[in-house]
Amino acid sequence: MINTTPERPTSIGVEDVRDYPMFIDGQWTDSESGKWREVTTPVSRNLVIGRAPDASADDVNRAVQAARRAFPAWRALHFSERQRILAKIADALEARTEEFARLTALDTGNAIRTQARPEATTTVNLFRYFAGVAGEVKGTVLPAGENQLQYTRQEPLGVVGCILPWNSPLMIAGFKLPAALAAGNTLVVKAAEAAPLSLLLLAEVCAEHLPPGVFNVLTGRGSVAGAALVGHPDVDKVSFTGSTEVGKGVARKASERLAHVSLELGGKNPSIVFPDAAEDDDLIGNLLLASRVQRQGQSCTAGSRLFLHTSIYDDVLSRLVDALAEQVVGNPLDEVTDIGAIINATQLESVSQYVTEGLSTAGITAALDGTATPTDADGYYLRPTVFSGADNKWRLSREEIFGPVLVAIPWTTREEVIEMANDSHYGLAAYVWTHNLDDALTTAHALETGWVQVNQGGGQVIGQSYGGYKQSGWGREVSLEGMIAGFTQTKQINVRIAG
Q1: Closest by Cα among 43, 402, 42, 20 to 194
Q2: Which DSSP symbol is given to 393?
Q3: Measured distance between the N- and C-terminal CA atoms of the chain, rounded to whole angstroms
Q4: Rounded CA separation 366/370 (Å)
Q5: Considering 99, 193, 204, 264, which one is annotated as catalytic?
Q6: Which of 57, 69, 377, 467 lies at a C-alpha separation of 20 to 30 Å from 383?
């Protein structure tokens, strides 16, 4: 069992270092090799908050075989029983929302008020939603004449391997796990090496309600445990969320054995402001929300390419910069914090290199320099940076930085901004700001992206499909349609009836 009621004199909410075992076949276990890896928190540099097993290929095989054994009985359950179990898990998660929020903040660096608590609440709602639609996994009957009964069944795929990222691991687990379970699959989940603890706490909750083997959680390195999971011959589906480059490797390896694959990958998302939206009272707040700086920019849906019409460019940029400068950066467990910590030193260095390049590029202006005023905290913190004077061809305008960095780009015509917005190998999210219905719908329909918000920085509702075009991924999540397409397969049955 995992205890997450920490009290440590440093006031960052960490108890003494302890071990967090994996969960395989209904049991808490360490790796067969006996090896462990340290888990650190970005809240304070080099602070170890626990250890998790360094899973090997043998551990992956143990988990997969447990899931395979559990599959026939789980698949055979009446949907109402799976529905009841998922609803109980949702209730149990809701009762421990604050515990999950604190652990998420500690594990990922996401600020508890602006990010970690909403993520924990969303996870509850996802389990509740998929419990509610479990009975909708059903086929159709074709009217084929009096002597024929022709119908389809939507059947579960089998063992699903889920590989989760470190930026919002609990919420993204909610995208995948309840949908797969509701459809009748069993699971082997590989937690992110940099942020595994919230997934292990989720396993603790699920253990009270799910039969052994239905839900298994592994920890360790992606290059070892993740690779073994993707390549395992008894894993019927791989559901991956992470970077585009790693996702390509997952797709290649899984395709060697024709396993089902879904990928939710990166984004370099346009946020397009038309002139008539400039005076909206809530524009700046929504642009700030769309930028995802309150998740340290560590979001694949971040509106990091800010396209401002030339007539309102200076005004909107100035107001947004003022709002970003007022954001409180610091300890994610502090309720006053708006922006928490970058996940680790490696990611901070990667983002910082982009910022340094931008600051040294001729013709580019830092409308807001996030490095100018360092934070007082000793963790991996970085204030937002906004670059002006760029065009859509600049490297920082095209590559996913995955940090609190925005590039403002001017435009003059709707056709021009649509062309620039689509000039990307990504296609995950987009934001459009206008009250002109023609501009709004024409732009939204023309954008080559899977998820478009108009006049809002959030707006995603559970039950609406989420996923990308182009190199932002394959498949859809967060919806009934995504569950059926992603976690079931269609069987056609034709019966001749003797007259």
Answers
A1: 42
A2: T
A3: 61
A4: 9
A5: 264
A6: 467
Residue with tokens 């990307």: 424
Name residue 372's amino acid: A
What's the pLDDT tens digit per position in 419-444?
Answer: 999 999 999 999 999 999 999 999 99
Regarding beta strands 22-24 and 27-29, do their DSSP bridges make them parallel or antiparallel, or are they unpaired? antiparallel
With H, G, I as helix, E, B as strand and everything else as coil, classify residue 366. strand
Residue 206 annotated in active site? no
Q: Which amino acid is at 39?
A: V
Q: Which residues contact 73 (CB under 8 A, 6 or more apart)?
A: 211
String of DSSP letters for 298-317: --TT---EEEEETTTHHHHH
User: Could you write out the three-class secondary structure of 175-220?
Assistant: HHHHHHHHCCCEEEEECCCCCCHHHHHHHHHHHCCCCCCCEEEECC
Show the DSSP H helices in 292-413 as ranges: 313-325, 345-359, 395-398
Q: Per residue in 443-473, pLDDT tens? A: 999 999 999 999 999 878 999 999 999 999 9
DSSP-assigned letter for residue 413? S
Question: Full-prediction pTM beyond 0.85?
Answer: yes
Mean predicted confidence (pLDDT) in 344-353: 97
What pLDDT was estimated at residue 14? Answer: 54
- Which string of DSSP letters, residue by residue, matches 142-159? E---TTEEEEEEEEE-SE
Task: Report CA 149 to chain centroid distance, whole Å.
Answer: 42
Catalytic residue among 300, 349, 448, 477: 300
Cα angle 260, 266, 271 (rounded to 5 degrees) comes to 135
Give the DSSP letter of residue 64: H
Find the length of the chain.
499
155 as an active site residue: the answer is no
* 104-145 residue pLDDT tens: 999 999 999 999 999 999 999 999 999 999 999 999 999 999
Residue 118, number of CB atoms within 10 A of its CB: 17
Our CA dihedral for 116, 301, 392, 453, rounded to 10 degrees, sits at -120
Q: What strand order describes the sheet that includes 305-309? A: 365-368, 385-388, 405-411, 305-309, 270-273, 429-433, 451-454
Report helix, strand and coil shares of the chain as percent, to nearest 5.
Answer: 40, 20, 40
As a whole number, mean pLDDT of residues 358-373 equals: 96
Cα-Cα-Cα-Cα torsion 246, 247, 253, 257, nearest 10 degrees, comes to 170
Give me the residue label for tokens 């652990």. Answer: 103
Cβ atoms 211, 186 nearer than 8 A: no
Instruction: Kindly tell me the sign of the dihedral angle through the C-alpha atoms of 341, 347, 348, 354.
Output: negative
What's the CA gap between 429 and 363, in Å, rounded?
A: 28
